[in-house]
Design brief:
Number of strands: 15
Largest sheet: 7 strands, mixed
CATH topology of the largest domain: Purple Acid Phosphatase, chain A, domain 2
Protein name: Metallophosphoesterase
Order of helices and strands: HEHHEHEEEHHEEEHEHEEEEEHHHHHHE
Pfam family, one: Metallophos
Family: Belongs to the cyclic nucleotide phosphodiesterase class-III family.
Number of helices: 14
Strand content: 15-25%
GO molecular function: hydrolase activity; metal ion binding
Helix content: 25-40%
Oligomer: single chain
Keywords: Hydrolase, Iron, Metal-binding, Signal
Length: 444
């Protein structure tokens, strides 16, 4: 399958390259880029709003997939209104790679492009060759068509691939010059050629040998041109939590971070985790690269980021980043939505997330702790998740959480061997700072 992908991709590269090559690149200037990740978009043809899909949502990991279409519409409406210089989506565009979901989302992104905002996408681990692609209709789950790498590129050709200034022959990676001072590297880190019916999708990310060669060549040209590289990928570059490294952090991430730093890169965007989190990678020699793991757009408070990059034309830049929630209620009012849930969608979403993100293992909590302590444990976990996923679990917030009456149930759960208690302990022990804003001065 890997050889077939490479052969088929070669036929598409020439036309894509011609679209990017020869275009007039704007001069170095400040650029503002919108960034989001992990939409996990579910097309209308995939689910019917029935009990089966409702149960999938309620027993899942807190993603509000039953409302992802209006959440996405609200977000894209904000992007069109704000008119950033570009929109980056760092993978997991679809729920489980359903072709119908990709087709519907691509059509919406094409409208953003038509409105004057360039869109750049890359695949996440759920997006390509995903044998878990299913429909949830009439109370039954059934297999449905997924997309191949070639189909992914064709569907999203207007979202980066056709405009690329350089394409990697070994993967769906590409580079586009936002202007002469900022080069964007969209890195495909998905080993989708390994997927098969018994192994529907990989979680971890890897970079192909050919991609390393292509990337370093392009980074060298970027440095020689006096531009700064901006890296985007799905899996994480830095360690965001000691509990979430294997399967979350890119394989050979240190090599990638060092390569980026060697060519003047200071900032990378990733996703995959779902909480909003910012982490620093630092080499033994003191070089630094910040990794912003964007919170999932499908998870309350539906965060997206805005970064302004001000290049000096000599390989240095200043970066200012801020994450903000999507105002679904404002979108609903502007578009005449009548569902009462939209009257205060943020409050509704927060409540649902606190409940749904604690539903896994609920029976085991009761078995280990009894009804009363299990309820307290879930309340503490729900509050921790609300803070953590919003990028707001500061040291002060963690201290308040552990001082609350419900936290006693967490301490008891630790003695009873409840693994989730260890997860909560990790969150509060690692709590620090603000994960919704970042300022980076030019590298020395």
């Amino acid at each position: 399958m890997k050889k077939n992908f490479a052969a088929a991709l070669a036929a598409l590269l020439a036309a894509a390259a011609l679209s990017g090559c020869g275009r007039e690149v704007p001069p170095a200037a400040p650029v503002t880029v919108a960034v989001a990740s992990d939409l996990h978009y579910v097309g209308e043809a995939i689910e019917d709003g029935g009990e089966l899909f409702t149960r999938v949502v309620e027993e899942g990991d807190g993603r509000q997939l039953n409302y992802i279409r209006p959440i996405t519409d609200a977000f894209l409406a904000e992007v069109v209104k704000d008119k950033p210089d570009a929109l980056i989506l760092t993978g997991d565009l679809s729920f489980n790679g359903e072709k119908a979901s990709h087709e519907e989302l691509a059509a919406k992104l094409n409208k953003v492009v038509e409105a004057g905002v360039p869109v750049y996408v890359l695949p996440g681990n759920h997006d390509v060759n995903n044998y878990a692609a299913s429909t949830y209709l009439g109370g039954e789950r059934a297999a449905t068509d997924f997309v191949t790498p070639e189909q992914f590129e064709e569907l999203y050709k207007n979202c980066g691939f056709a405009a690329a200034d350089s394409r990697d022959k070994a993967s769906l990676s590409y580079m586009v010059k936002l202007n002469a001072g900022v080069w964007l590297f969209m890195l495909d880190t998905q080993p989708y050629y390994l997927h098969e019916p018994g192994f529907p999708y990989c979680v971890g990310g890897v970079v192909q040998d050919g991609t390393w060669t292509w990337l370093e060549k392009q980074l060298k040209q970027c440095k020689e041109a006096g531009a700064v590289p901006l890296l985007a990928m799905h899996q994480n570059l830095a360690v965001h939590s000691e509990r979430f490294t294997t399967g979350y952090r890119l394989y050979d991430a240190d090599r990638m971070a060092q390569l980026l730093a060697d060519y003047g890169g200071q900032l990378a965007f990733s996703g995959h985790l779902h909480p909003q989190h910012i982490a620093l990678w630092q080499s033994e020699g003191g070089r630094q690269v910040w990794d912003v793991a964007s919170g999932s757009l499908a998870v309350w408070p539906y965060l997206s980021g805005r970064v302004t990059i001000d290049p000096d034309g000599a390989g240095r830049a200043t970066y200012d980043y801020e994450a903000k929630p999507t105002d679904v209620t404002a979108w609903a009012a502007a578009t005449g939505q009548t569902d009462p849930v939209f009257e205060d969608f943020s409050a509704f979403g927060r409540e649902q997330f606190a409940i749904n993100s604690t539903s896994r293992g609920a029976d085991k909590f009761v078995e280990a702790l009894g009804e009363e302590d299990a309820a307290a444990f879930r309340r503490a976990m729900g509050q921790a998740n609300v803070l953590y996923f919003a990028g707001a679990l500061t040291r002060e917030a963690a201290d308040e959480l552990t001082a609350s009456p419900d936290w006693a149930a967490v301490e008891r759960a630790k003695t009873q061997g409840v693994d989730t208690a260890g997860y909560l302990e990790t969150l509060v022990n690692e709590a620090e700072g603000d994960h919704c804003s970042l300022h980076i001065d030019p590298a020395g």
